[in-house]
Task: structure prediction
Amino acid sequence: MKIIDLRSDTVTLPTPAMREAMYSAEVGDDVYGEDPTVNRLEELGAELLGKEKALFVTSGTQGNLLALMVHCQRGDEVILETESHIFLYEVGGISAIAGLVPKCVPGKRGIMQPEDVAGSIRADNIHFPKTSLLCLENTHNRAGGSVANVQQMEGLGAIARAHGISIHLDGARLFNASVALSLPAAQLVASCDSVSLCLSKGLGAPVGSLLVGGRDFIGKARKVRKMLGGGMRQAGIIAAAGVVALKTMVERLRFDHGHARYLAEGLLDCGFHLDLAQVETNIVIASTAPLGLSATEVVMRLAGVGVNINALDNNRVRFVTHLNVDRADISEVLSRLHALGRSWRATGSSQ
Ligand code: TLP
Result:
């Protein structure tokens, strides 16, 4: 039985072109700034996002942590959305390593309202920590790959600028957002001081992310990356796949979005609950409540028929489409689900 893995777009495997590029990559010691392939990847990333400089980092988590550490001083406060990846899934590095205080603001589908952000910025008062940074996430993972448009990004950017605070975007899936909006990524991030973006998710590279921003910011981030043990020497071997990812894998993300939509329609037929209008990119979040099954039960039953997904909470599951699943795979997932549905209806949902 073919295993169809929809747990995440992080499971994507490097393409033959990436393996070829890795095999023949020109490399050097990147801590000396002498790896030509890393340098090429960084130049390409900076250019695509319309910023001065970029830094190749080990992961999205490392990129976000460096941004927190460079934009802020220990003890400062950072505004983030309540369900943001930095707050929920980065092992508390924001406090444990960066020494910062998270101030969570709930968003609508992951997008904070300007008035809520403005109201969360601390006044200059001896009792308060200083608000130094606003973090955004686009697309937003836990909100089901929701997309913030240019107006929303600029509205939040204007609030940050008016209060003299910096703005960092967790753009792990930035290109999913730019493809969904049919807009150049640079336009979408124009109001951000820094952006982290992942090469190892939908773009298919095996490892790595880019942190992008101004010359001075990236210079400082390079030093903090070294402190955290992220100076990677002949990293051109992996950066080579990143170059292929940025050059050839962005536009195809729209296929993943189409597959997510097709999957979501099928999930509705299978009795899951979801709002189709909320399927904007490659993530589908569906409620298992109408099936009378918990999310964990559905994850286990699907694993039993060779379909891997993740539970989001007690009664919601997440499906992520990506490079290594095509339309036929989605049809196969749906037919396995239909067969399962028949059996769980026949045996009763309490089993
Ligand atoms: N997200 C992973 C898990 O950590 C949940 C996933 O499977 O979706 N920002 C966002 C918005 C992310 O979704 C992720 C990874 C990261 C940052 C971290 O990237 P890595 O895994 O490279 O540290």
Summary: The radius of gyration is 21 Å.
